[in-house]
Amino acid sequence: MLIKQLIESHRLPAIQKVYQPEEELFSAGNKADKLFYLTNGSVRIVSDKPAAAVHQVQPDTLLGLPDLMHEKYGYTARVQHPSQLYVINKQDILKLLPQEPALRMYLLQLLSKVSERKALTFE
After folding, report:
1. Average per-residue pLDDT for the chain
2. pLDDT higher than threshold 50 for residue 121
3. Which of 8, 30, 62, 74 is the least buried, fewest Cβ under 10 Å from its Cβ?
């Protein structure tokens, strides 16, 4: 995954952390100032919207991306099993976008997949 390559090459600053079950990465309505890249374990995504289902995400997932351009998170992410994640400041990824065309395309593709899933939920 491109995000992991950027982190490991030190082009994208990130802090590696281990989280325990039931720890919250972020909550709906809180300030959206970080993204989380899951490298090991699993995280549960919970929305307060009635139509949205609870789902589990696996390693190589970038959490918080749908809120990259928003002030607040639109959902809650809670660790389900012991998990290792990279914590990325939103401003660091935004600063890198003009320098990394591959990152721009990659994030657009991920956002497109998120939009597609949301559209299917409402059909």
Report:
1. 87
2. no
3. 8
Q: How confident is the model at residue 50 (pLDDT cuts 50, 70, 90)?
A: low
| Domains of the chain, first to last | 2-121 (2.60.120.10)
Give dist(CA 86, CA 18) in Å, integer: 9
- Provide the CA 32 distance to its chain's centre, in angstroms: 11
Tell me how far CA of residue 111 lies from CA of 52, 69, 80, 107, 118, in angstroms.
Answer: 17, 11, 24, 6, 11
With H, G, I as helix, E, B as strand and everything else as coil, classify residue 70: coil
Helix (H, G, I), strand (E, B) or coil at 40: strand
Beta carbons of 104 and 64 less than 8 angstroms apart:
no
| Predicted TM-score of the model (pTM) | 0.85
> What's the Cα-to-Cα distance from 6 to each of 3, 62, 102, 108, rounded to whole Å?
5, 13, 11, 17
